Amino acid sequence: MGSRGVVLLAGTVVCEVLGTVSLSASDGFTRPAATLGVLTGYAVAVLLFSRALEHGLPLGIAYGTVTGCGLVSATVLSAAVLGDPVTPVQAGGLALILGGALLLQRRVPA
Known about the structure:
The chain is mainly alpha-helical. 79% of the residues lie in helices and 0% in strands. Helix 1 (3-25) packs antiparallel against helix 2, helix 1 (3-25) packs across helix 3 (59-82) and helix 3 (59-82) packs antiparallel against helix 4 (88-104). It starts with a helix and ends in a 6-residue tail after the last helix. The model has no long low-confidence stretch (mean pLDDT 91).
């Protein structure tokens, strides 16, 4: 697994989160600019994810990392920008998810 694959995976997370936040702002795809943000964010995320896999990232580890980091990032962003509430128990769950996603990236000899 090369560092380029990890950079592509990080870009995947960023684009997926931007697409998700745009989805909230699209108001059921009735707002053209936000709808374009959804489509662009998700399309670029899929493209970057496919390129990350080409650099040797195992599918399960890569997908787990994207979904875990994407969930945490989208939740934090929605709390900060949209004012969505996050309880202490939810924050603890997010910390566990992020920890799990980071542990997936560790390479341990078999």
